[in-house]
Amino acid sequence: MAIIELHDVSKLYGFGDATTLALDEINLSVEEGEFIAVMGPSGSGKSTLMNIIGLLDRPTYGSYSLSNRSVAKLRPNRQARIRRDKIGFVFQSFNLLPNLSVIENVALPMAYKGMSSVRRLKLASAMLGRIGLEDRQYFMPRQLSGGQTQSVAIARALINNPSIIIADEPTGNLDSDSSLLIMELLSEIHAMGTTILLVTHNSGLTRFATRVVFMSDGAIVHEELTNVGEIAPTFRRNSYGLTVKTVEDDLAGVSALMKVIPDITPAKPNKNKKSNRWNKKKQPGRRRK
Questions:
Q1: Which has more confidence, 278 or 146?
Q2: CB 98 within 8 A of CB 44
Q3: Which pLDDT does position 177 carry in this prediction?
Q4: I need a labelling partner for 159 at 20 to 30 A (CA). Which of 74, 94, 103, 252 fits?
Q5: Secondary structure element (H or E) that encloses residue 8, with its range
Q6: For residues 37 and 211, is the Cβ–Cβ distance under 8 A?
Q7: Counting beta carbons within 10 angstroms of the beta carbon of residue 82, is it exposed (0 to 12), middle (13 to 18) or buried (19 or more)?
Q8: pLDDT tens figures, 66-84
């Protein structure tokens, strides 16, 4: 069943000659439980699309249905309730409040539900335990590593049990080890049935997705299904010129490329001879065979 349905969605900013078309008649259907990676160059409309899906912005034209309910033109307070209950956000810049402890940051979204402080902190502590940060719950954000900080942001996004997680470049400020930690955490969340929309520039992260959507100039230009654990076929073809199906094939492809690179630079032809044969004179620093 489709949880997200966009039909001819367009978004314009500005007026008159200064009008910018950020989204151009987007049609997108997302099934419940999918893990979709959204890719494209800067300015292609990825973040604008996520803002509309996350009810942080409204489309200029077109329709948007969330769980079979039209939500594009709801009043702001009703959109805020849906956003609070159904959608969790993970941003590249973490967006933790620096003056609140880890557990207070995670508990914050529940304050808007009128829940008591004791109840909020108890649930936040349990959530931090799920992601392995129970020993950091009274730390301040500045005392955490980048990967730990992003993990706390994910815990905060999960605290209201949303059906959708929108992750906008969640690994953009992280090193490779921390990025892997975050992607494995998102993968575990996806395995529990949560729908995930991931915006990324990193083609390697398509290994975690079940579908990849490519955007350019505000439009969806290509989509392809992927197998979890494999890079999207488009990136394989661009890498090797052939379809590679497994990680072992990836490594074999690299190995094959290395084998065809000559390890000895040929000597230049001897211009003093009429023959076209290579000059077999001993080259400096090389052995005779």
A1: 146
A2: no
A3: 87
A4: 74
A5: strand 2-13
A6: yes
A7: middle
A8: 999 999 989 999 999 999 9
**Strand order of the sheet with strand 87-91?**
87-91, 164-168, 195-199, 35-39, 211-216, 219-225
Helices (H), 117-232: 117-130, 146-158, 176-191
Q: Which residues fall within 8 angstroms of residue 214, CB to CB, at 6 or more apart?
A: 39, 40, 220, 221, 222, 223, 234
Q: Where are the domains of the chain?
A: 2-230
Torsion angle, alpha carbons of 133, 203, 248, 230, to 10: 80
DSSP secondary structure letters along 82-141: HHHHHEEEEETT----TTS-HHHHHHHHHHTTT--HHHHHHHHHHHHHHTT-GGGTTS-G
Pairing mode, strands 211-216 and 195-199:
unpaired
Mean pLDDT for the chain overall: 83
Q: How far apart are CA 182 and CA 203, in angstroms?
A: 16
Type of residue numbered 232 = A
Tell me the fold of 2-230: Rossmann fold (3.40.50)
Question: Which tokens sit at 253?
Answer: 């492809």
Burial (0-12, 13-18, 19+ Cβ within 10 Å), 263: exposed
pLDDT in tens, 9-65: 999 998 877 889 999 999 999 999 999 999 999 889 999 999 999 999 999 999 999
